[in-house]
Structure formats: C-alpha cells, structure tokens
C-alpha cells in the first residue's frame, strides 16, 4: 500500500485527492467526508480498506481540507461535482476496477446523490441519507421539532435571509447539536485541534444543503446497488428517519447495514469494525 496526494480540476477549481493505493486492488472507493472535515480525518478507516485490497480516493471538497479555499460560495452541488470528477480520476487511473462511492453523514448525502447521477458506479455506500422535502428533516437540526408543521414557509423565509446575507459564516453549533453528533470527547478534540477542519459554513452553502431536492433517489434514477449505513443509536439521523427514507429509495437492490455503537461518528470512532464489514460487502459485489 502507498499513499499519495493528487490535484485535479473540478468545476474550474483545484481540489486535492488523498489516495491510499492498495497493492493488487480489487476495487476502488471514492470517499466523501462529513461536515467540515476531510479524508485524512478518517485515516484509520481508509487505510484499513487499502490493507484489505481496496484502493481509496478520498475527496477534499472545494473549500475543505487541503483543497483550494479561494472559492467562497460553493454549494452541495459543487461537492457532488467534485465527487463525480474523483470517480473519473479513479476510472482512468484504475481502468477495469469497479468504483464505488462512499460517504459519511453529509458525505453520505453526496454519495447517494452521486448514485442517482452517475451510471458508472458499481455501488454506493451511504452513511446516512436525506430527503430535504420531508418535514421530518428538521429533526436532524437543532431547531424545534414543531417547526416541521411550517416546514415549507420556513424554507421560503430561509431563502430570503440567504439573499440578504449569503456570506454570513455560521458555526456547526448553529444548526447541529454537537452532543447528538457524538458524546465521545475524542471526536471533538480531533475536530477542534485539526487545522484542516473548517469551523464555519456560509449561509449560502447551508441553504443549498437544506433546499436542494435529491429527487433522483426516489424516481428510479439509481442504477447501482445502494447500501445505507446506519447506527441504531444515532441521535442525529434517527433510526425512524433513516428507515422512512430507506423505504422510499428506488434502486435495483438496496440494503440497510446497521451497527449498534450508539454513535453518529462510528466511521471515526470504530474504524476497524466498520471497515471489516464494509470491505467484505464490497468484495461480494
């Protein structure tokens, strides 16, 4: 196994890929990280895949990690484009190997959207998935659950604020509760002390995340096997919410891969357990 970094152009912006290249690889993962973090944050997990014969191409999305931070008004669509361009890189460099998309949390949302847009994928492994049109999506945020009853007008009001203050920078705690993401202090020590982790998102980006409709997940656009990774004790993406969306997903085949670590950050806190199970599933395809 060897590690290297590759710069590619995506949407006219330079982004960085972290590549863990397995010897005698049987497949390639294009990995998209969670909110405000980067692939190196998941080094034990991604290195574990490489040790199991799966090359990993980790995406540093625009404005994140080691990628260019000059482009300030990026959106969730830009990150999806970054992932798609990383797939192109993987298919070119590792011609003949199946390429699967994988993402955690926000990255899982990106991986699911990519599965609906890119027919080149052999499979998609999504740790969490979201349908923004569902009023229950408000439960992911720190805002009161009763706002689900005024979800549509609330989104309209949100768009008005975005037009007025698109570049307003907001910390993670503004819209998500850290204790629901993880109660493990080592998670927050790693995030807070990592200079490559972002500390804020613009209102412009958050609007794109919560108002973009991922209709391809439910209209038959997905052409590859779809695996949803979930933890029964996840306090951010609840089992009920994830199951509701899973039942709506349209794919040639779909499967829920459930863990019991009671931690939304299980890909960081339990990398070997997660890696062993997911690598076995990838080798089955």
Structure characterization notes:
- The chain is an alpha/beta fold and 285 residues long.
- The chain is built from eleven helices and ten strands.
- It has helices at residues 43-51, 76-93, 106-117, 151-164, 172-175, 178-181, 185-193, 203-211, 239-248, 266-269, 271-284; strands at 2-10, 13-21, 27-32, 54-60, 99-104, 123-127, 169-171, 200-202, 226-231, 254-259.
- Strands 1-2-4-3-5-6-9-10 form an eight-stranded mixed β-sheet, with helices on both faces. Strands 7-8 form a two-stranded antiparallel ribbon.
- Helix 1 (43-51) packs parallel to helix 11, helix 2 (76-93) crosses helix 3 (106-117) and helix 4 (151-164) runs antiparallel to helix 8 (203-211).
- It is globular.
- The mean pLDDT is 95.
Quickly list its features.
eight-stranded mixed beta sheet; 285 residues
Beta-strand segment tally? 10
Give the low-confidence spans: none
N-to-C SSE series?
EEEHEHEHEHEHHHEHEHEHH
Q: Structural class of the helix and strand makeup? A: alpha/beta
So how many helices? 11
Radius of gyration: 18 Å
Strand content: 15-25%
Mean pLDDT: 95
- Shape summary: globular
Topology:
Layout: E1 2-10, E2 13-21, E3 27-32, H1 43-51, E4 54-60, H2 76-93, E5 99-104, H3 106-117, E6 123-127, H4 151-164, E7 169-171, H5 172-175, H6 178-181, H7 185-193, E8 200-202, H8 203-211, E9 226-231, H9 239-248, E10 254-259, H10 266-269, H11 271-284
Parallel strand pairs: 3-4, 3-5, 5-6, 6-9, 9-10
Antiparallel strand pairs: 1-2, 2-4, 7-8
Helix pairs in contact: 1-11, 2-3, 4-8
């Amino acid at each position: 196994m060897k590690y290297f970094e590759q710069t590619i152009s995506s949407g006219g912006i330079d982004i960085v890929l972290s590549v863990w290249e397995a010897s005698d690889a049987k497949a390639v993962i294009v990995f998209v990280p969670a909110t405000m973090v980067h692939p190196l944050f998941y080094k034990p997990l991604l290195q574990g895949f490489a040790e199991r014969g799966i090359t990993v191409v980790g995406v540093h999305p625009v404005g994140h990690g080691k990628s260019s931070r000059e482009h300030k008004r990026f959106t969730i669509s830009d990150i999806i484009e970054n992932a798609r361009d990383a797939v192109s890189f993987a298919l070119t460099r590792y011609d003949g190997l199946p390429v699967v998309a994988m993402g955690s949390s926000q990255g899982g949302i990106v991986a699911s959207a990519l599965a609906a847009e890119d027919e080149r994928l052999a499979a998609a492994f999504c740790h969490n998935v979201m349908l923004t049109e569902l009023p229950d999506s408000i439960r992911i945020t720190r805002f009161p659950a009763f706002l689900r009853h005024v979800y549509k007008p609330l989104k309209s009001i949100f768009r008005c604020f975005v037009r007025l203050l698109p570049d307003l920078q907001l910390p993670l705690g503004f819209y998500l509760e850290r204790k629901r993401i993880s109660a493990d202090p080592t998670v927050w020590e790693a995030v807070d002390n990592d200079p490559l982790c972002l500390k804020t998102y613009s209102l412009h980006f958050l609007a794109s995340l919560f108002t973009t409709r991922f209709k391809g997940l439910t209209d038959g656009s997905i052409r590859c096997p779809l695996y949803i990774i979930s933890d029964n004790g996840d306090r951010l993406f609840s089992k009920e919410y994830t199951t509701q969306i899973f039942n709506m997903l349209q794919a040639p085949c779909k499967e829920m891969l459930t863990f019991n670590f009671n931690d939304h950050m299980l890909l960081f806190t339990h990398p070997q357990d997660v890696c062993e199970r997911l690598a076995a599933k990838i080798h089955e395809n």
